[in-house]
Amino acid sequence: MRIVRLALLIALGLGSSVSSVAAQPAPTPSPTPTVLVVPLQAGVQAVGSPTVASIPPTGGQLALGDGTLRVQALPDPTRPPLTLVYQAVDARTLPAAQRGLSLGFGAFELDALTDDTHTPVTSFNVPIDLVMTPSASDMALALDQLSRLHVATWSGSSWVAVPCPPGVAAGTLVCSITQPGLFAPLIVLPTNPALDRLDYDVTGGHFYTQGNGFGGGGGLGYAVVDEITGPLLFARWLAAALIVAAQMGIWGTGKYSRDAALMTQAGEALCTYLETLRPPPSART
Question: How far is the C-alpha of 66 from the C-alpha of 68, rounded, in Å?
Fold first, then answer.
């Protein structure tokens, strides 16, 4: 009899434990973290893992990568909360630099996405400043002369200079950008003053490399052809000055918009308009 009672108790105990286990809710699986993949130019290889940071419409400062790149954003109520994605890249896999320029080592891709939907952002209404501290390797290429080191962004066909005046902190550059993209330091190679001139005569005018964004290097510049005189000459030089000033980013220190592309277009538009004011060849003296 005792054996029967003991068997019943054991059976009841097992049944209650089974029912209690069955009553427990199933565990909720942990959400899979979103992995942000930085799209790179064809052939460009990433180095290490990307660094992600957020920036609100109120602006702020944040560090990316190994700390040699800092982002400074002014307030912009129209800008949604952004996620900035920094990816260092192998400079050896970048498109070649123009003649007279050499690629540095500290190249990177900077992408911007909306925080909520991760939609790519292609431009900034208010420019964002990148405060860059060139590496020792890049400074060695520049012969320890910060003036020989420039920053450029890849346009899809060539490297275009970014306005980067020296920063308040020694050894830094403050680059004002209006869109994310692929960036790289470019070093102006030494030249022979007896052979390489910053400006020279061309057919029907003159070619100037000063203020091309690369310290006169890279074989880039501005041609003033079919020489004109008087007020039109002054106006033409004013238009050229707008283009040069935009490329150098010489106005503003972060308090004003410094959209180099927009100002360059304004200067070029002024040049085009001036051509419409010129008398036809038959009326020129």
Answer: 6
Q: Whose CA is closest to 166, among 125, 203, 132? A: 132
Q: How many residues does the chain have?
A: 285
- How are beta strands 173-177 and 128-132 bridged, if at all? antiparallel
d(CA 285, CA 188): 43
**SS3 label, residue 87:** strand
CA distance 267 to 262: 9
Structure confidence by residue, pLDDT tens digits, 192-209: 454 455 555 666 666 555
Task: Please give the pLDDT value at position 19.
Answer: 44
Q: What domains are defined for the chain?
A: 51-188 (2.60.220.30), 199-283 (no CATH)
CA distance 126 to 257: 6
Task: Report the SS3 class of residue 255.
Answer: coil
Radius of gyration of the chain (CA): 30
